[in-house]
Amino acid sequence: MHTLLSITKEPYSSATIKISDIVTSALESEVTLLTVTSKQSSDQATLDELQLVSEQMSSPSNILVRQGNPATEILSELNSGKYNLLAIGARAHSSAPTELLLGDTTHRIVKDTPISILVARGTIKKLKRILVCTSGPNAGFDAIQTAIKIAKHTNSSLTVLHVSRAIPSMYTGLDQMGETLSDLLQTNTPTAQHLRDCANLLNSEQINAEIELRHGTPTQEILRDVERNKYDLLIIGAAKRSSINRVLTDNVSTQLADNAPIPVLVVHSTIY
Q1: Residue 40 to residues 9, 45, 217, Cα–Cα distance (Å)
Q2: At 161, which CATH number?
Q3: Which of 72, 88, 120 is the last residue of a domain?
Q4: Which of 120, 148, 176 is where one domain is finished?
């Protein structure tokens, strides 16, 4: 596994470096540090700064310095095909729309790139509680496997959340609205089988985990759960490119990357 860690100026770098180091250590990933500078910047000074960053991390890192437009240079490096994960920084969450490192380009990366993305936000010293969200078999199992690996490495508790989309108001009163996790697991639906598979995997890995079911709009329910339970990391699976659910899942991933007050890891495939 190979991670591209994009380093920018403070105040984003510290948070990005810390959570990236935790995640890449858990996933046993090789790391390449990338900084894009202006033509007026000193390459040697930048290299010295990156060397200090590398020394703070759990394992040695490769170092790259590029000159030019950050979006162009990062995308160019990603297009080399060497990487499984991109780690980038974002501003601390506020009431204003979140300004990510690359603005519109980051949105496009979250939406379109086939590799996984870690969006770092806020400050974190240690992972204690991880929330992993699964929308079903086409977008969830890789995220569950990744979450298990990180949870085992960090000794974190793990919650698996599935949000069942709300039924239109014209159909309110149907039994499905009151469906519990126990009810769902007794059915033969693909979602029920997926959650049973998740439960079996969690049990086999002896992970301190629980599975929860919510009804409503996925983004709203996930963000509400993040705030309520004070999670340290949010992990969400991205639908396979051939999946008919991909548009819906991509939209949720982008909204969570924009609005979650904690780091978000969008998993496009098993990344280790």
Answers
A1: 16, 12, 48
A2: 3.40.50.620
A3: 120
A4: 120
pLDDT higher than threshold 90 for residue 241: no
How many domains does the structure of the chain reveal?
Answer: 2
Residues 242, 134 share a domain: yes
Write the DSSP string, 101-145: TTTHHHHHHHHH-SSEEEEE-S--S---EEEEE--STTTSHHHHH
Can you say how many angstroms the Cα of residue 134 is from the centroid of all Cα atoms in its chain?
A: 12
Closest among 239, 16, 15, 271 to 147, alpha carbons compared: 271
Dig out the tokens for 16 from the structure. 């990005």
Q: Which pLDDT tens digit goes with each residue over 135-191?
A: 776 666 889 999 999 999 999 999 999 888 755 444 444 444 456 788 877 888 888
Residues 70 and 188 in one domain: no
Contact 117, 78 (CB under 8 A): no
Range of the domain at 80: 2-120
How deeply is 14 buried, as exposed, middle or buried, from its count of CB atoms within 10 A (0-12, 13-18, 19+)? Answer: middle
Cβ atoms of 146 and 270 within 8 Å: the answer is: yes
Whole-model pTM? 0.85
Specify if 228 maps to a domain: yes
